[in-house]
Amino acid sequence: MKTMLLLALSFSIFSVNAQKYFTRTGNVIFFSHAPMEDIKAENSQVAAILNGEDGSLTFALLIKSFEFEKALMQEHFNENYLESDDFPKANFKGEIIDFSRDMLQSGKNSEVSISGQLTIHGVTQNIETLANLAANEDGVRGTAQFIVKPEDYNIKIPKAVRNNIAKEIEVTVTVDLKPR
Amino acid sequence: MNKKRILILFAGVMLAVAVIGFYQFNKPHKNYEKAKVEVTISANLLHDTFNSDEQKANREYLNKIIEVSGQPVSYDHNANGSVTICLEDEFMGVSCTFDSLYVVKNYERFKWAQKAELIKIKGRCDGFLTDVRLSKCSFIPMTHQNAP
Q1: Chosen from A58, A61, A62, A92 to mutate, greatest number of chain B CBs within 10 A
Q2: Cβ pair A64:B24 closer than 8 A
Q3: Would you call A62 and B133 a contact, using CB atoms and an 8 Å cutoff?
């Protein structure tokens, strides 16, 4: 009986460690600061998975789910720049460098580096960024901020609006990942 | 005299262009609650269609106003006040997101929808991850199950 209990216990501990952390409603905001205007858009339907075993990460989002204050900007963003009918998704596959399982222990707060491949507009680039992992009782909150250059992803911005759209777009990611 | 007339005409055209430009720039977002349904399909069939040939389904459904019917299996309040209801399966079904403003205005319907076995939702198709995503959703009024 005791060994059975021990076996059950050790199995449950093992399964906790093998956990995946997941969200379907992560948040990505991008911000463009240019001489003529500031533009902000938000997507709160981002899917993200963190493997609690090895620290590998996957993010996926739909371009059409970005919301702008101005309808016209959203239209231009989808039709002219990101061409979301042809390239509806953006995704990131990568890993937390020097990941250890106890970063996910409740109460732990870790500054980490993340590296991987970001695909936007059908173009894949290597990126690296700093991020923060804050583990709590419900799971783990991950935040990161990095720069994306439209030209790196073959996103062409016409001369007429060069002063309206920044060459470097600031991207902020916030995900509340829950174990499952 | 002739010159003056041309000048006035020119100024008028410029003014018209400026006014149209201003309204274009500030035009409101589409009202998806009032938008006409373009495709009616079951949640299972919509997911199967995307799952079997995503590119083809994208061409057929992206940006369209789709009415889906199915069983709600999860109900999530998001950080920004929006609500996401998944039909048929949380990962392999159709996820429908309702804007926070709609949620506030239709409290009773959400309360009902949490218990319903079959609901109908319309929304804009944004694409496919592992689930099909609809945004700007609203409920299609039902005539049975004591729906509000």
Answers
A1: A62
A2: no
A3: yes
In this predicted complex, what is the ipTM?
A: 0.85
- For residues B140-145, average pLDDT: 71
Q: Which residues contact A43 (CB under 8 A, 6 or more apart)?
A: A27, A28, A29, A61, A62, A65, A66, A67
Q: What is the pTM of this model?
A: 0.86
- Residue B17 falls within a domain, yes or no? no
* Residue B117 falls inside a structural domain: yes
Domain count, chain B: 1
Question: Rounded to an integer, what distance in angstroms lies between the CA atom of residue B2 and that of residue A38?
Answer: 45
Asked if residue B28 belongs to a domain, the reply is: no
pLDDT at residue B28 in the model: 87
pLDDT exceeds cutoff 80 at A8 = no
Domain harbouring B88, CATH code: 2.40.50.140
Question: Which one, of A20, A97, A14, lies nearest residue A51 by Cα?
Answer: A20
A24 interaction partners in chain B (CB closer than 8 Å): 76, 84, 90, 95, 131
The range of the structural domain enclosing residue B96 comes to: 39-140
Confidence at residue A161, expressed as pLDDT on a 0 to 100 scale: 87
